[in-house]
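for the writeup, i need someone to sanity check this before i put it in the appendix. the sequnce is what the collaborator sent (i think, or maybe the updated version? ugh). structure was predicted straight from it, no edits. if anything looks off just tell me and ill rerun, i have time this weekend
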Amino acid sequence: MVEERSATESDPGDRFSEEAARAGLTLPRPHRANPWEVAAVCSVILLVSLGIGVSTGWLNLRANADPLPGLLGPQSCVAQGGQKVDLPGSIAPNSEPQFAVSLGFLTDRFTSSDAGCVEINFTSGTGTPGPQGVVAGPVDFSMLEAAPTPAELSALPSPAVLLPTGLTSVSVVYNLPGVADSLRLNGSVLEGIFAGTIRSWDAPAVVQLNPSTNLPRGLPISVVHRSDPTALNGVFTTFLADTVSSWSTEAGVGDQVPWPTGVGVNGSGNMAAFVATTPGALGYMETGVSLPTNVSVARMENAARNFTSPDIGAVVAAAAAWDAGANRSVVNWSGDPLLEAPGLSSYPLVFPTYLLVYEDLGKAFGGNLSLRVAQWEMTYLWWVVTDGGYVSASLGVAGLPEGMVSSVQQGLEKIAFDGTSVLEGNEGSEGGETTGEF
């Protein structure tokens, strides 16, 4: 590791203020961004996205667009002697490749404007898909596509904070000649298809949802599912079990289940290829993956009985509607799904991505992680939650709505270094204040 990861300073309050000022490090504002500023950024991004065309969602947004104005301002690292701080993170092994791509995109955006102060590298975790082997290794934080269970969290060697970082969704994809982007489905019909009780496209349950659609007569539904263990399976099977309770006994819920029917494929690429080459095929993919021209995305019935597509507006609407009635701890979001969120415009198959980081970085790493590394880590994580998610929408990740951003910021402020909040330890020091314009 390039940066020495140890801390010997004696007074926590002075240590935070003096070192941040010496390094010229711009930490996030201690008491969070102005909600009106965050709302304005969200509104602008949402309007731009919708203006480009909600029919194709965030796939139309330009991945090479210029970075948005940051909420943290310019960075400097005058006290690092030209050396980059090494900030290693990890990605859970059950994550989709698209998730790693989106994180790489975000990280490039951050490091391109951090004055050359930080080197951020992600490695894939090993072992079981839980946090073990992810945070337990030589990394400072982990990014996950599915929340670990309370038992998995309690098994970690030090107390950890689990917070959402962005939003993504599951797209139900199909290949029906003459029925492009107009198919309507709901959870119970989807469960029947994957359970093998609904087998043809002109089945009464499918026709009832699509009375004005010319569905092909007698065409079998060719079901395809993921056979490899993936967080996407966990989200999708949870949705099926929440919709029809019998699914829990028919197949169960998890990253890898004994599917009652259909063809199993390994990876999202093979899923897209199977659907594209098989008339009558039906499968599911993480939103944001490029689809062949003859593969369409179904509109799903939500909790308000409206049919919505997985575009950015419907994904953010689901999170905002759920957040309005949420009752949770700001440091533990485990078991808080966004599936079947209320609201007229909500998409029903939305799920958050997560950040897993130790509550006290100094104590968790036993003095092998320096204060400066901790400060840069929290600067990056704050940026991802507050600013970064919006610019990765073209890769299938949307930013959190304002209420969730505020809650996550509160959770980040609780992360400490030897008992002192990393983000609030520099309060009152001008050296750590943002110098950019907002």
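The chain has two domains: 12-168+321-432, 170-308. The CA atoms of residues 160 and 364 lie 9 Å apart.
thx in advance!!
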